[in-house]
Design brief:
This protein is mainly α. It has two helices and no strands. The longest helix has 11 residues. The two termini are about 20 Å apart.
Amino acid sequence: MIKTRSSKVPALAEYVRSNHPYEVAEVISLPIDQGNPPYLKWIGDVVPE
């Protein structure tokens, strides 16, 4: 599992497609509507816009 911002998903998907050995690599994006507030703050702090 890779965690990133929604705005970064297209570039991440392209990177995975270019570098993963599988013909069809799984790349999905799931919205987070709730979670542990300290964790959500941390992920927001460590993943740049």
